[in-house]
Amino acid sequence: MRENGYSLILASTNNNHADERQCLEMMLNQGIKGLIVEPTKSNVYNPNLSYYSLFKQRNIPILSINAQYEELNLPYIAIDDIKSGHLATKYLIDKGHEDIALITKIDDNQGKLRMKGYFNAFENCNKVFKSEYIYTYDTESKLSVLDQFVEHVVSKQIQASAVVCYNDQIAYYIMKKLEKLGIAIPNDMSVVGEDNSVLSKLEDVDLTTTSHPQELLGEKAANWVLNTIETGKVQPSELLDTYIIERSSVK
């Protein structure tokens, strides 16, 4: 960005609509030339959508990354989240697992798409998932839902032999909790994450996960904004590919 004469202004919404509104108001007042945004709670109604219309009215290019506000026609660059969920689930099915749990986030669009991939994997393999093995959480309920899943596994309320987690952070939390309670990974429970974060290699058991090329996504997002500003033409959206990264958390 600096090489092209632009400075970078960063702000965090903390996945909170009130914080997002403050960020957007600040950006409007700063007179920015372009905006890269990761949507806040992208799977629920957002009271701040009109701010994005203001940016568009002022001909300020907006690029959405990792997720979309489906109500708005914004260009985006994101990982193929449906494929990510499908690959994670199919990997477990191919390993012989049938009772596969899912822990996913429902207030963000990525969680919905990854859950669709989970469903697709079962359907494509002519198998049936168990609704009671699906655990959904939002930003506020995350820890309570994760602890509930752990409790259900330990008490044998569910008989899942494997779990697909929304991301590596969730997988890391689940692995640590289960191992403290005597559930061995992967002998007693196989775990797959999604996004290949630094957390995937922090435990004694390295996490099988799906790829998420964050640096590539960032580079593409920056180039998208620069090209759109310089040419005056909105650049196309792009869906980045993903693949399974096999490590040692699956039996």
TrEMBL record:
Q: Which residues form a coiled coil?
A: none
Signal peptide residues are: none
**Gene Ontology terms for molecular function:** DNA-binding transcription factor activity; transcription cis-regulatory region binding
UniProt keywords (A-Z) are: DNA-binding, Transcription, Transcription regulation
Q: Name one Pfam family in it.
A: Peripla_BP_3
Looking up CDD domains in the UniProt record yields: PBP1_AraR (cd01541)
SUPFAM superfamilies, per database record: Periplasmic binding protein-like I
Q: Which residues form the Transcriptional regulator LacI/GalR-like sensor domain?
A: 90-250
Q: InterPro entries from the xrefs? A: AraR_ligand_bind_dom, LacI/GalR-like_sensor, Peripla_BP_I
Report the protein name in the record.
Answer: LacI family transcriptional regulator
